[in-house]
Design a protein that fits this description.
Layout (H helix, E strand, L loop, with lengths): L4 E3 L1 H4 L18 E2 L4 E3 L16 E2 L13 E7 L2 E7 L18 E4 L2 E4 L6 E4 L3 E5 L5 E3 L4
Parallel strand pairs: 2-4, 10-11
Antiparallel strand pairs: 1-3, 5-6, 7-10, 8-9
Length: 144
Amino acid sequence: MTPKFMFDVAKVGVKALALADVGNASKPHALIREDNAVAYDPDAGWKKGDILPGRLLSRADASGSAADNADVRGEWADGQWTVLWTRKLDTGHAADDKALKPGGVVNVGFAVHDDNVTTRFHHVSFPLTLGIGTKATISSVALE
């Protein structure tokens, strides 16, 4: 199957990854349509061993409560990711999301997805509890 996208050399510095790049957090690991991808060029000087991620991410394709996760930032430092994620307590998407209430505790699990693709690849946490202003495995605080 021919890829539809490749890395944008002007933004990423390379059109594809090498095997040694896979798993290196300083290298791009996903094709993001609105950020670092361009249409695949079959005449781009491909060589044996060039690797393109099998998943294309796109914020524009997100819908429902998934589209409410726009305020997420991550930072890779000292061998680990720190992620700051904010969202409304009630996203208004009752069919695919749970409203959160101050003083309440809910069971949660976190999954990190390469989303908006046909085969969802993800990592999942063990079950946790989230307390909204109360004691739980994870106790949240209101930001003003």
